[in-house]
């Protein structure tokens, strides 16, 4: 038994084949190629297909290298204003931290390290969290004594003062005898 093919599916298939054959598919399509990762040495950074040598700590890249594996032009950071702590390929230095009113400067900013701030006396911040605002140190109640003083990174630790135990032997504090 011979079957007759319906003309509509054949027409549709024919149009699809013609469309695909007419569509340009360039063999060197730049947008569809995977960009190969630039592999540079440890003391280099990638820039526009080249590997440029890093600038030293305390400096930044003013002009990138023009030839592979060379250093461009490095300019110094501004003392007390900006810094870079490590060799880098940065196009500008990082701004120095300015200590807020509730903090004091422990170490000034240099061209190779940021300023270090800590809470003023009477205030603290937990070292486990970023310190946005220093907290006022706690005061012990009248029935407590200070076990550990407040520091810039820890709050005051208080402990209860207990009345002397009447059943324990008394010690003469002058000579240590009971």
From TrEMBL:
Residues 156-178 are annotated as: Disordered. GO terms for molecular function: transmembrane signaling receptor activity. It is found in: Membrane. One of its GO terms (biological process) is TRAIL-activated apoptotic signaling pathway. Residues 76-117, 118-158 form the TNFR-Cys domain. TNFR-Cys repeats lie at residues 76-117, 118-158. Disulfide bonds join 96-109, 99-117, 119-134, 137-150, 140-158. Keywords: Apoptosis, Disulfide bond, Glycoprotein, Membrane, Receptor, Repeat, Signal. Its main location: membrane. Gene3D superfamilies: Tumor Necrosis Factor Receptor, subunit A, domain 2 (2.10.50.10). The keyword Signal applies. Residues 1-22 form the signal peptide. The keyword Repeat applies. GO terms for cellular component: cell surface; plasma membrane. This is TNFR-Cys domain-containing protein. It comes from Engystomops pustulosus. The lineage of its organism: Eukaryota, Metazoa, Chordata, Craniata, Vertebrata.
